[in-house]
Amino acid sequence: MLRLARGVCSRPDDGLKLYPSLKALEAMHEGLHVGGKSALEWHGVRHYVAQRPLLPLYGQH
Q: Distance between CA atoms of 6 and 57, rounded to whole angstroms?
């Protein structure tokens, strides 16, 4: 097992997947959420096609 953070581990043969990783981050950090065009795209709404996809994350301190 590879320890990624407190309470977060990964098996050596398993790659990290985006959605489960974000769910784990949301559980660890109250108020964290995906925003901007990424959030819209994940809900099936695309306005522009990004050349380099960005993943803005927002949260409270």
A: 20
Backbone dihedral angles phi then psi of residue 5, each to the nearest 5 degrees:
-165, 175
Separation CA 14–CA 33 (nearest Å):
25
Contacts (Cβ under 8 Å, ≥6 apart) of 57: 25, 32, 33, 34, 35
pTM of the model: 0.53
Question: pLDDT tens, 23-60?
Answer: 888 888 888 888 877 777 777 877 666 567 677 777 87
Closest C-alpha to 18, from 55, 60, 52? 55
